[in-house]
Design a protein that fits this description.
Blueprint: E1 20-33, H1 39-43, E2 49-60, E3 68-81, E4 84-99, H2 103-132, H3 145-154
Antiparallel strand pairs: 1-4, 2-3, 3-4
Helix pairs in contact: 2-3
Protein name: Protein-export protein SecB
Main location: cytoplasm
Keywords: Chaperone, Cytoplasm, Protein transport, Translocation, Transport
């Protein structure tokens, strides 16, 4: 990274730095468990009910410029038929972003725009892992990250910095 310009300086062609830059994205953690295998496959007669939970976290990356953040999408899919667990899938999908926005815009960019960029990739990973695990793929519906951020603000939570 030493050959890249500082985030707040103009980029080589004289243009100002972009307000949001995705530096890298990656799977930080992925877990897929079928607690009742192989019996669950032999007795599966209907589509399982899938309970989903999603969370977005953001933190400054230690040792970097103060405008470099890791944003993580944390998704859990818990599939059951009646009370029998079919599978549990957990995914933490992250991106490292450089922000060049006014301070008052940092939180909404981190918790709305950044996860919006990461979501299609996380959605694809979750669909692939559930399909490869022998079940119908879990296809997440689009997420309203603005509503998620607003509900989080209503609960008094703030962006975490570590």
């Amino acid at each position: 990274m030493s050959d890249q310009p500082a985030p707040s300086s103009p980029i080589p062609n004289g243009q100002p730095a972009p307000p949001l830059q995705l530096n890298i994205q990656y799977t930080k953690d992925l877990s897929f468990e079928v607690p009742g295998a192989p019996e669950i496959y032999l007795s599966l007669r209907e589509q399982p009910r899938v309970d989903l939970s999603l969370d977005v976290q953001a933190r400054q990356v230690p040792g970097q410029q103060p405008n470099v953040f890791e944003v993580s999408l944390q998704i859990r899919a818990d599939a059951k038929i009646k009370e029998t667990s079919c599978f549990i899938a957990e995914l933490v999908y992250c991106g490292v972003f450089t922000l060049n926005v006014p301070q008052e815009h940092v939180e909404p960019v981190l918790l709305v725009e950044c996860p919006r960029l990461l979501f299609p990739f996380a959605r694809n990973i979750l669909a692939d892992v559930t399909r490869d695990g022998g079940f119908p793929p879990v296809m997440l519906n689009p997420i309203d990250f603005v509503a998620l951020w607003q509900s989080r603000r209503g609960q008094g939570q703030q962006v975490g910095t570590a």
